[in-house]
Specification:
Length: 249
């Protein structure tokens, strides 16, 4: 791990750890520990192997874990993607996202976010964002849930070829929609915009999940990431289509 990575992790993770400590103390004071914890999550795995004129393989894995409390909600997302073509790696990407929300009411909350992406073929050694803002749950029904978040943030990116680190304050706007089309089919739409003076990043992911049996489901997803300013010889738009098996717990 290089010095720049250690610096950004320390700079952003320490406040997050302090935030979690405050959450634990607040939960204890509010008597949350007396209530049974509400943990849930989902693990995804998708793979594709082809042979013939071109030998290729791909692996896509995700882990989402969340805890919903009376005062504090915690969410952790991890993702890894790897593809090879004729024995050569053509894609290698890792994402980690940590979010802590302090609920004010059933609908409003304070959202804090810390995330990092490491994409071997993006031209960046890493892209890290920390943000805090106001969140509002527009719909809270079991069949239809939606929320938006808005607030300031700070981005730190390191360019791989030059080793130059770029930092700037940003604005962050994000939203998520979950629609239970039927008891066995769910549509999820997530979007985010992180505009800055020097660079801006926009993301969108649409997924359709269908229950197979019990806790198992299949998922089709399409994601798009647009980065306004990228290193030389790199494209601005990154698209991904995935087919995965989901296990919910």
């Amino acid at each position: 791990m290089d010095a720049g990575t250690e610096y950004v992790l320390i700079r952003l993770c320490v406040p997050a750890l302090l935030f979690f400590t405050s959450a634990a103390l607040a939960g204890a004071e509010a008597g949350e520990e007396a209530a049974p914890p509400s943990w849930s999550g989902a693990a995804e795995l998708g793979t594709l192997v082809t042979s013939g004129n071109t030998d290729s393989s791909s692996l896509n894995g995700k882990l989402n874990v969340k805890h919903e409390g009376k005062v504090w909600d915690k969410k952790l997302k991890l993702a890894a993607r790897n593809s090879k073509e004729d024995g050569e790696t053509s894609k290698e990407k890792y994402n980690a996202e940590l979010q802590l929300d302090r609920n004010f009411s059933k609908r409003s909350y304070l959202a804090s976010l810390l995330k990092q992406e490491r994409d071997r073929f993006s031209g960046f050694s890493y892209q890290t964002t920390g943000a805090i803002g106001y969140g509002y749950r527009i719909f809270t029904d079991k069949a239809l849930k939606a929320h938006i978040e808005v607030g300031p943030g700070y981005r730190r990116d390191k360019i791989k070829d030059t080793g130059v680190t770029e930092e700037e304050w940003i604005a962050r706007l994000a939203g998520k929609l979950q629609w239970m089309i039927s008891p066995d089919v769910q549509l999820v739409q997530e979007i985010s915009a992180e505009p800055g003076q020097d660079n801006s990043v926009y993301e969108s992911e649409t997924s359709l999940e269908s229950q197979v049996i019990g806790a198992l489901a299949t998922k089709l997803s399409y994601s798009l990431t647009y980065t306004d300013k990228v290193p030389d010889d790199k494209v601005n738009t990154d698209r991904e289509f995935g087919v995965t098996l989901v296990y919910r717990f």
